[in-house]
Design brief:
binds flavin-adenine dinucleotide, about 15% strand, single chain, Butyryl-Coa Dehydrogenase, subunit A, domain 1, 9 strands, two-stranded antiparallel ribbon, seven-stranded mixed β-sheet, globular, about 50% helix, Butyryl-CoA Dehydrogenase, subunit A, domain 3, 3 domains, Butyryl-CoA Dehydrogenase, subunit A, domain 2
């Protein structure tokens, strides 16, 4: 018999082709990605084998339009795959999702020429990166200092970025900076595509992190990098508009990542407390534990439902869903931290040790409250939306 969360999964709106793909992704994630998750967490090795397994299923193609080498599916299907891969290995989940986060703005805002030239590389399995954060510009991206200077048919880039997921391995970077000659911290923000191997682009440092350890997080330097003017997205100064529109679509993706981690922790703890006995009874037979499980299951059911709700609005063509996406990112990531922390508690002393993966999941969950807008920033965005002007 299915439990309530499995029943909800069976009701996700997918067509037959998407359901079959999700089935293959689940099988690949459980058989090939999950068994390597402990090793890549311990060693922090970039999981190239997992990237190969993802590309063997052609998964990047699901978010690239057909004329550029893709085989597009719904946003709901993309989120379901992101959740599945993240449940098997949170680091691999974020590596794949970052391809989407970085390249979706190119799909939405790029010219035909840019898309024909750049997107087939991604559709074939190339890696993308989204480069916004700088040492002095975290929650407030308008403080960024990376500069774009026009030089004939080229743009010259100087500056640097920090904490860039896939930063050392990406084929294409969606890079934000400020256009020299435009005044104003917001007005000057512009965005372009930087290609791997561009002279002057270097990796200065890789972070040694608490969780998602196999996903690389790079500090990048740009020392007079020259890119063709043809790689600029939109016009000079369009950056902030493009940034906000793209974050609306990457935030549900980050929520799906967090909910994958949460589901992994929930399922592991349910399996454990059905087996483990104390005082002659299964741990799940104690009422105090049933109350904990009920709280976690109801939160999961509600937040997952909101994920599919937001996804259905996106699939129906909505483009103004910033607060809906903020609510989702906030609740899904707080929930991932809560479920993983409670999962460690439910496994007792064994939960605290590395033999069980809930220990890793708790470390993996923490970042979800920090990136794609910290949860303080999301609370502020949501609260501010009620201000009467
Ligand atoms: C593993 C990892 C991967 C990442 N990947 C990427 C990536 O691919 N691309 C990219 O561009 N960036 C990436 N980031 C950066 C990430 O998005 C930032 O770390 C995040 O935006 C927060 O910025 P900060 O770290 O500078 O913190 P700060 O902005 O300095 O915040 C410090 C604290 O102050 C709080 N705070 C800040 N402003 C406010 C406010 N107005 N009100 C209330 N509280 C506030 C924050 O919530 C936080 O608790 C990544 C970071 C990590 C750690």
């Amino acid at each position: 018999m299915m439990n309530i969360l499995e029943t909800l999964d069976s009701r996700i709106t997918l067509n037959d082709e998407e359901r079959m793909l999700l089935h293959s992704v689940r099988q690949m994630a459980r058989e090939r990605i999950a068994p390597r998750a402990e090793h890549v967490d311990r060693t922090a090795e970039f999981p190239w084998e997992n990237v190969k397994a993802i590309n063997a299923l052609g998964l990047n193609a699901m978010f690239v339009p057909e004329p550029y080498g893709g085989a597009p599916m719904s946003y709901t299907a993309y989120l379901a795959c992101a959740r599945e891969i993240s449940q098997a290995c949170a680091a691999t989940g974020i590596i794949w999702a970052t391809n989407y986060h970085g390249m979706k703005p190119l799909i939405d805002w790029g010219t035909e020429e840019q898309k024909l030239r750049l997107l087939p590389r991604i559709a074939e399995g190339g890696l993308g990166a989204l480069a916004i954060t700088e040492p002095g510009a975290g929650s407030d991206a308008t403080g960024m200092r990376t500069s774009f200077r026009e030089a004939g048919d080229e743009i010259v880039i100087n500056g640097g970025k920090t904490f860039i997921t896939n930063g050392d391995v990406a084929d294409l970077y969606l890079l934000f900076g400020k256009w020299e000659g435009i005044a104003g911290a917001k007005e000057s923000i512009s965005v372009l595509v930087l290609e791997k191997g561009t002279p002057g682009l270097s990796v200065v440092r890789l972070e040694d992190k608490m969780g998602t350890r196999a996903s690389s997080t790079a500090t990048l330097a740009f020392d007079g990098c020259r890119v063709p003017r043809a790689n600029l997205l939109g016009n000079p100064g369009d950056g902030l508009k493009i940034l906000f529109a793209s974050l609306n679509k990457s935030r549900p993706s980050v929520a799906a990542h967090a909910l994958g981690i949460a589901r992994g922790a929930f399922e592991d703890s349910i399996a454990y407390i059905n087996e483990r006995k104390q005082s002659g009874r299964k741990i799940l037979e104690f009422q105090g534990i049933q109350f904990m499980v009920a709280d976690l299951a109801s939160e999961l059911a509600l937040v997952e439902s909101w994920l599919w709700q937001v996804a259905s609005w996106v699939d129906a063509g909505a483009d103004d869903f910033g607060i809906e996406a903020s609510l989702l990112k906030l609740r899904a990531t707080d929930l991932a931290m809560r479920v993983t922390t409670d999962a460690v508690q439910l496994l007792g002393g064994y939960g605290y040790c590395k033999d069980f993966r809930v220990e890793r999941l708790m470390r993996d969950a923490k970042i979800t409250q920090i990136w794609e807008g910290t949860n303080q920033v999301h609370r502020q965005l949501i609260g501010r939306s009620f201000l009467r002007r």
